[in-house]
Amino acid sequence: MSSATLSSNFLRNGCLWKGGVKNLEGDHKRNAGKVFVKCSVNTKTQKAEKEVRLGVLGASGYTGSEIVRLLANHPHFGITLMTADRKAGQSIGSVFPHLISQDLPKMVAIKDADFSDVDAVFCCLPHGTTQEIIKGLPQRLKIVDLSADFRLHDISEYEEWYGQAHRAPDLQKEAVYGLTEILRKEIKSARLVANPGCYPTSIQLPLVPLFKANLIQPNNIIIDSKSGVSGAGRGAKEANLYTEIAEGIYSYGITRHRHVPEIEQGLSGAANTKITVSFTPHLMPMSRGMQSTIYVEMAPGVEIKDLRQQLRLSYEDEEFVVLLEEGVVPRTHNTRGSNYCFINVFPDRIPGRAIIISVIDNLVKGASGQALQNLNVMMGFPESTGLLYQPLFP
Q1: How far apart, in whole angstroms, are the C-alpha atoms of residue 108 and residue 80?
Q2: CA 20 to 30 Å from 65, out of 213, 235, 239, 386?
Q3: What confidence tens digit (pLDDT) does each residue in 231-257 have?
């Protein structure tokens, strides 16, 4: 085949693929047999061509900055509005110097935001403030909310765990929980998606398929999770100072972490019975990354190989959830900066029990990456679009 023919047949969005067209329809399949030849992106040209206009509310936080970073290579989504009350009037590059190359509008206060040039919104605001703001947004907007404000179906549980009444109960009825690989069909037709928390993502992805297949018991579930410090947000807090975090491990939220009802809600739905877990999170002296080590009791007659087989069947066509080879221990290093979740299963020394290890990047698959994955689904684009960054190592 001549180079001219190759260019005309296989050039799309500046990316050249040899051996076939880049797969845009079946987004769960790898581009098997295709060799990437060249990808040239003119960001200024592509900015004008992007057909979906986005607002990022709360762009000065870690999840907001990750949204901006991930969108830099998205061929269809472009940012037309960014808000940050305390940084109003500033550029994203002045707040996050690693994003200085991005040609984006200056941040404005939320009260001054103009949504006339916006089609969809990522809401990266703290819980408690998000409900009123989303309630006031134009009905035509698609919204992915990264706060906890719409994750719990029962508003009385929200009040119990977050210490304040829910301010948008009608919107709560509309909200769809955004665990993409599990609830893809519901997300596709949603207007408002509640993006899952980081810990619940790392825990539900391995456990939901096992509960649905009745392979594990609904009792005696112990979850030990560890997160990088970025999970606590960018606000200045004494507990997050370098001297408070470095060279040590800190357990927090023991028995009362706010992700507990979200975890139990998802697992109870999968098991069709009330699930109560023993969950303890720990803050680790690293900037990003998350590991959940989960101890479960297998159903009678079930073996480790059955758990592995079910996870393999559940995720074999998924891009972002990977069951590792038998015996390989998942490491947070190997998902850093990416939207991947790596999982594996091991036999416990106690007969009839299994140990499941799940790792993600708390800021990507645990927050902004999954949010982008969800908006891709909502807008009808292949859900891996803009997300095929490989993990950063070392």
Answers
A1: 11
A2: 239
A3: 766 666 777 788 888 899 999 999 999
Burial 320-353 (b: 16+ CB within 10 A, else e): bbbbbeeeeebbbebbbbbbbbbbbbeeeeeeeb
How open is the CA angle 341-123-205, to the nearest 5 degrees? Answer: 20
Contact 52, 78 (CB under 8 A): yes
Nearest C-alpha neighbor of 370 from the set 245, 143, 158, 198: 198
User: What is d(CA 186, CA 310) in angstroms, rounded to the nearest whole number?
Assistant: 23
The C-alpha atoms of residue 39 and residue 384 are separated, in whole angstroms, by 17
Q: Is 98 helix (H, G, I), strand (E, B) or coil?
A: helix
Distance CA 331, CA 360 (A): 9
109 and 89 in contact (C-beta within 8 Å)?
A: no
Could you list the beta-strand ranges (E) of the chain. 11-12, 15-18, 35-39, 52-57, 77-83, 120-123, 142-145, 176-177, 192-194, 221-227, 250-251, 277-283, 290-297, 321-323, 341-347, 353-360
Structure token pair of residue 349: 């020394």
pTM equals 0.87
Residue 220 confidence class, pLDDT cut points 50, 70, 90: very high
Evaluate if residue 22 carries a pLDDT over 50.
no
Encoded tokens for 266: 């998802």
Cα end-to-end distance, the chain, whole Å: 39
Please tell me the distance from the alpha carbon of residue 296 to that of residue 348, in angstroms, as a whole number. Answer: 9
Alpha carbon separation from 164 to 89, 193, 258, 331 (Å, rounded):
32, 21, 13, 37
- 39 given a catalytic annotation: no
Query: What are φ and ψ of residue 238, in 5° steps?
Result: -60, -40
Peptide bond into 200 cis (omega under 30): no
Query: Is there a contact between 146 and 122 (Cβ–Cβ < 8 Å)?
Result: yes
Closest CA to 245 of 254, 253, 237: 237
User: Could you say which DSSP state residue 214 is in?
Assistant: T
